[in-house]
Design a protein that fits this description.
The chain is mainly beta and 347 residues long. It folds into two domains: 114 residues, Roll (SH3 type barrels); 215 residues, monomeric porin ompg (Porin, Beta Barrel), CATH 2.40.160.40. 5% of the residues lie in helices and 65% in strands. The strands form three sheets. A twelve-stranded antiparallel β-barrel has the order 11-12-13-14-15-16-17-18-19-20-21-22.
């Protein structure tokens, strides 16, 4: 016999009301955040996060709105947030106004930390839904020339699953060229994990998978580990530098397979503006100087200009260069350089 549990409510409606209110209270509390702008406007809703100089706020009347951080003078929240300062220091607590140029982080034990607004690089709620932690862009572009019968399609995906002290990311870029005689697929895939320490250091294990037949690479894969930190971070730009080591294998187009042991150098810098039209410039360089073949350096460089076309859709121009100083297959190129234009969706 299975045990059963029954609830009987008779002539006690206040118990039901109390239960409903206790469950709904956190929901209503989350919508009680207040944001005050320099021009005196007030917004009431749920503060989602601050990222790359822009505050994301969910409201009942206007939906989700995005506000430039330098236009805000005061903020009050009901939930706790992990706040990251431009120095790399991290603080946890509810947010409260301190002055027109300062924000207060109040911890559970009552400890108060006052930061200038310009000292706040980002913050995210301690509790948030799975989908709310995902940020990313998907860009798709293509071209076709009838006279040559050559068609080309590009796909560029960047997605991040964010938590207060960590991030899971995936970067994927693919270029497919099709003609009457063959189809050539080239891509790079970089999934990984990033952990943010309280002292400002960042540790990131990741995998790197690539295919580029122009450089003699049928398929390459490597496991890497890097450590680094933001050397510059503000509400308008940021620069991350990291280095480490990697080990992997390359399957070459001539049928051979070789092993690699590499140093890793990663540099990524971004400059962004959130006033309409939103604009961002992203530059990245990932280098693999080989340690078991001294003098060989492989690198992947990307320059990307994004500009808003209309809500949640952006136009992107990408310039990329995949480089191998000493290709391991005879009579192949050392560089694969390309330019693409695509239409993207931000989610």
């Amino acid at each position: 016999m299975q045990p059963s549990i029954q609830f009987t409510v008779t002539n006690q409606p206040f118990l039901v009301a109390a239960f409903v209110l206790s469950v709904a209270a956190p929901v209503f509390a989350a919508k009680a955040d207040v944001v005050v702008l320099r021009n005196g406007d007030h917004f009431t809703g749920e503060v989602k996060q601050l990222s790359r100089g822009q505050l994301k706020l969910s409201t009942d009347d206007a939906g989700t709105v995005y506000i430039d951080w330098d236009k805000i003078v005061a903020m009050t929240t009901a939930l706790q947030y992990e706040v990251v300062a431009t120095s790399g220091a991290r603080y946890v607590g509810v947010l409260a106004p301190a002055s027109n140029t300062q924000l207060k982080v109040v911890a559970k034990d009552g400890t108060e930390t006052v930061l200038a607004f310009l000292e706040v690089a980002s913050f995210a709620p301690i509790k948030a839904g799975f989908l709310e932690r995902i940020d990313g862009t998907l860009d798709v572009g293509g071209s076709y020339t009838k006279s040559s019968g050559v068609g080309q399609m590009t796909i560029d995906l960047d997605a991040d699953y964010r938590r207060p002290s960590s991030e899971v990311f995936t970067n994927f870029m693919s270029n497919v060229t099709r003609s009457s005689s063959e189809t050539i697929t080239q891509f790079t895939l970089r999934p990984g994990y990033m952990h943010f320490r309280d002292d400002g250091w960042i540790f990131s294990p990741f995998a790197y998978v690539a295919r580029n037949v122009d450089l003699g690479l049928s398929l390459g894969a490597a496991a890497a580990f890097t450590a680094g930190r933001y050397v510059q971070r503000s509400n308008r730009s940021e620069t991350l530098v990291a280095c480490g080591a990697a080990a992997g294998k390359e399957e070459l187009t001539d049928g051979r397979t070789i092993g690699d042991f590499d140093a890793v150098v990663s540099i990524a810098t971004s400059v962004f503006r959130h006033d309409y039209p939103k604009t961002a410039v992203d530059l990245s360089l990932l280098m693999f100087p080989e340690l078991n073949r001294w003098g060989r350096v492989r690198a992947n460089a990307n320059a990307r200009l994004k500009r808003e076309l209309f809500k949640d859709f952006i136009g992107t121009i990408t310039v990329y260069d995949t480089f191998d100083s000493e290709p391991q297959v005879a009579d192949v190129s050392r560089n694969d350089v390309g330019v693409s234009f695509s239409i993207g969706w931000t989610f």
